[in-house]
Amino acid sequence: MGSFFLIFLKLGGSAITDKTQPAAPKPEVIRELARAVFDARARNPALAILLGHGSGSFGHFTAKKFGYAQPDNWRAYAETSASAARLNRLVTDIFLQQAVPVVSFQPSASARTRDGELIHLDYANIRLALAHRLVPLIYGDVAFDETRARSIISTDAQFAFLAPILQPTRLVYTTAVGGIYRADPMRQSDAELIREITPATWAMQRAQVGASHGYDVTGGMMDKLARSVALAQRFPQLHIHILAASAAQLAPALAGEPIPFGTHIHA
Question: Region 9-34: what's the mean pLDDT?
Fold first, then answer.
C-alpha cells in the first residue's frame, strides 16, 4: 500500500448489536467507534483503514430463523443477505454522519467459496478506494459455494483472505468484552483475560478459551482465533489485537502505539 499505514478494523457483531436479540443494533457504540476513526485519520493522513463489521443479531438470527442449514433453502440465502445489508446500511450511514468517507462493498457480489472456504473476492476496487483515502467497508455475508451450493462468509474470513494481498500492519478486532477470556466474562465476572497468544502457545490455550456469548452461525470466536494465529505465523510482522469497542481502547491501536489492554496475537 505504498506509504500507507494500513489497518484492518472490525466492528464486532457482539459490540455493535445485542447478539441475544434479533435485529438489535447499538447505534451509540457505532457512533463512538466512527468518531475514533475520524480522529485517527485526522491526526495521521498516512493512515489507511479497511473497515469491516460482523452481522451480529441481524444475519445470524435471520439465518437461523429461515433455516439456512436446510439443503436448497435459497429463500434463507436471500433473507440472510438482505438482513446483513440492513445492518451494513446503518453502519455506513452513521460513519458518514461522523464525516468518515466509507464506501460499502457487498461481499456476496463477488465472493465464491469452496467447501466453506473463501477462494475469490474482488479486491481491485477496495485497493482503489484506499488509494483515494476512502474507507472501504465489508461485512459478514453469504456466498455461492462450488461444493456446498452456498455458504456464509464472516468478516474474519474476508480479512484473512485479503491480508496477504493488501498487507496490513495491524488487524484490530473490537468486541463487547474486550479480549479473549478463559471463560465467558458476560457469565463469569472473574473470567481471566488471556493477554497474549502466539502460534507456539495456541495449542495449549485453545482448550482454555471460553465460548462466545450469543448466537453465531460462523463459528464465532474460535474461528477468529484460529485464522488469526495462522496469519500471525505466516506473516510475523503482523500484529493482531482484540480490544473493547471503545474509543479509549481503539485510539492507540489506530495510532500505531503500544496497546496495554486486550489480547495480542503475534508470532
Answer: 95
Q: What is the DSSP string of 166-206?
A: H--SEEEEEESSSSEESS-TTT-TTPPEE-EE-HHHHHHHH
Confidence band for 1, pLDDT divided at 50, 70 and 90: very low
Average pLDDT taken over every residue of the chain? 92
Whichever domain contains 58, its CATH number is: 3.40.1160.10
pLDDT (mean) for 13-20: 92
**CA atoms of 184 and 177, how far apart (whole Å):** 9
To the nearest 10°, report the CA torsion of 139, 143, 148, 153. Answer: -10
Cα–Cα distance for residue pair 234/225, rounded to 1 Å = 14
**Per-residue pLDDT at 214 exceeds 60:** no
Q: Is the pLDDT of residue 188 over 90?
A: no
- Residues spanned by the domain of 131: 5-265
Say if CB 242 and CB 263 are below 8 A apart: yes
Number of independent structural domains in the chain: 1
DSSP per residue, 77-127 = HHHHHHHHHHHHHHHHHHHHHTT--EEE--GGGT-EEETTEEEE---HHHH
